[in-house]
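Q: What does the assembly look like in three dimensions?
Context provided by user:
Components: two
Sequences:
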Amino acid sequence: NAGVTQTPKFQVLKTGQSMTLQCAQDMNHNSMYWYRQDPGMGLRLIYYSASEGTTDKGEVPNGYNVSRLNKREFSLRLESAAPSQTSVYFCASAGTVNYGYTFGSGTRLTVV
Amino acid sequence: QKEVEQDPGPLSVPEGAIVSLNCTYSNSAFQYFMWYRQYSRKGPELLMYTYSSGNKEDGRFTAQVDKSSKYISLFIRDSQPSDSATYLCAVPSTGANNLFFGTGTRLTVIP
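A: Here is the predicted structure of the complete assembly.
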């Protein structure tokens, strides 16, 4: 049982380049999330999808777009990467939020 | 005011010590409370969740909620070096659409 799978695990981008972070879950969860984690800032919500076909902005959505491709997959796209987007990105999913999320192992992104 | 606030530490204790990790939250309507553990360079994993007030115990770990003071705690008994990690508290948003996380407390247990 893989849980939440994120790809890639590491990425280095040049300023202005674009990329898509992939996330897939095999737990039949309705809700999926993208967070970024920065030192001293904790986990900050970028976007979430409460169900297939819906997406909503979180606390820090600027510079990002998302696609809920189907119930299993939720991707995060950086259209024009900036050094301020250097961070660790976590995808998570939940069946019932009150009982918590399952997180992926993260993507370490560096923008130079 | 943030929905949940946590002392960032770091906290360093000798092996076998009792550890107390704490958070405060802002909204008295919150009913569910969670603790996550995050090892270095890994994703957070759910350690425990509690509903409403009182204590919940799981092995060496006890989660405690005091709704009168809006204070949540995680106690670790007989701490082990393998407990060295960052611990994050979390609460669901009012609509239960997402979780709000504390910034995390880094714990080191010294053998």
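Follow-up: Chain B has a mean pLDDT of 93.
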